[in-house]
Amino acid sequence: MMLIEETAIPDAALPVARFKAHLRLGTGFGEDGLQDDVLKGFLRAAIAAVEARTGKVLIERAFGWTLNHWRDAAGQRLPVTPVQAVTAVTVVDGGGAETPVVPATFRLERDAERPVLRPVSGHLPSIPPGGSVRVGLLAGMAADWGGLPADLGQAVLLLAAHYYEYRDETALGYGCMPFGVTSLLQRYRPLRVSVGVLQ
């Protein structure tokens, strides 16, 4: 099983000006854009960390997911959330020949935590021995920064500012995230069920 991010968040979708204001960086000088590439890097790192912590894709982009067998041919849980569309399903045989699956034969069962690819009837297409299936996905909470929930946007800015301020620090512990960020993300974290107890 392999998940590939096929499109990256475009630079234009990153809130660089808002991040500069958050950091209270000076403006009106001849070198206003000097740190833009550095700031974009911290924003991308913060977005990746927030997505890892919440299990949710923030800004819409395309993913390609390849697997060698269905866990359940009656419905395969998808690896990212929220999924906006299943753009393609392609069966690949052992020799590499590709056969697109007719879109009318499958559907997306939307769910905020566990979206599922389901057949319209019967089962998902069989995967030949030595073959695989590739599923194209469009996933994300919003098409652009302005469409994100305000608390998630604030969490990204706070975390990016933390990275910026402590960019030379090497002694922080594994998984270190400021309390303000973790509290903003808490309601977005995926629920886990263990022995009948929600965690």
TrEMBL record:
It comes from the Bacteria. Signal peptide: none annotated. InterPro entries: Phage_CHP, Phage_HK97_gp6-like. This is Gene transfer agent protein.
